[in-house]
Amino acid sequence: MFSQLPTPALDPILSLTVAFRNDPRREKVDLGIGVYKNSQGETPIMRAVSQAQHIVADTQKTKSYVGLAGCEEFNQSMVDLLLKGTSVLDRVAAIQTPGASGALRMLGDLMKVAQPDTTVWISNPSYVNHKPVMEAAGLKVKYYRYFSPLTKQVDTELMLQDLAGAGVNDVVLLHGCCHNPTGADIDFSAWQAITELAVKNGFTPFVDIAYQGFGDGLEEDAKGLQYMANQVEEMLITTSCSKNFGLYRERTGAAIVIGQSALAAQNAKGKLMTLARATYTMPPDHGAALVKTVLQDQALTTLWKQELSEMQQRLLNLRQTLCNELRNQHNTSQFDFIESHKGMFTVLGFSPEQMGTLREEYGIYGVGDGRINIAGLTEKDIPYVADAIVKVSQR
Ligand code: LMR
To answer: Where is each Aminotransferase class I/classII large domain found (predicted)?
Structure first.
């Protein structure tokens, strides 16, 4: 049965983690997978999460099943973090999922059932898993122009030109904040313009927000999404606790549906639950139990918000320090755009060959599409990385 299978292509992000681990060089820097590191180069368990682990260990009385939708208090917390204060709270429904990729797949499967002809429009470029997941769900995928390689910013005009072609059978997938891979976000007026197009032409917005809190702050990062939610009839949202709770391996995320009515949202949730049953039955509990514990306790919530804001601040400092190093030590303003990007990532504008040179000659691991993870830098790496970036840019 398996002898006909071709050798599969390596995952462009996850394969880097393995290659980095196996690289024997002392001088190596992992800027591949989107994981936050502190100044010691560690990815620590957040203090609020660590305290929640003790509470859960001491108070949890059973490991019996939770349910197809996962933990409902967790689901409500995810809705609150994203949509509190909007007008849609009476027509929204959510299920807990194994990470945001699990949420993407569940919503992909839901679209395939609800509207089999759906085409999902994704940004060019986009998160490397968007296209594979949507295609695995049997949906067509189309790209809209997004990023200008020249300015390293969003080309809003071209983006809107393309999205003007999306209609009733289309779903437009947007990054809620901290665009992956570019780090270039749309501004609030672009959110307004896309919303206007959605209302006029009838496409459904789908917002993937996996980095809430890493851009401009927890509430600010949801502003565009909230504006849109208030105007449109239907919307899909995927969210993740991998980054903002540091729960990567616990696979903790949610799929959220805003329906035209409370009944429509509940029916979508029911369908999501039957789809989950046929896929993994129910999501792993531990991460959601920790998030619930943090968010139901005022002191832990305050601590978590403070830690998240420290992480966000550290990312800003790393961006500034890298830019200063490039400007002052190498006399180049070519990479000033790095400072204007948001969240963990930035694309350098390097070709796959240049990214290969960074990896092979300098032991600096970034993704082949030119993405580097700023959150993977430590202060002591910056001079070495800046030097390598300048040298490789001159090839
Ligand atoms: C990333 O983009 O590096 C992360 O979201 C990890 C992943 O699942 O690809």
So the answer is: 27-389
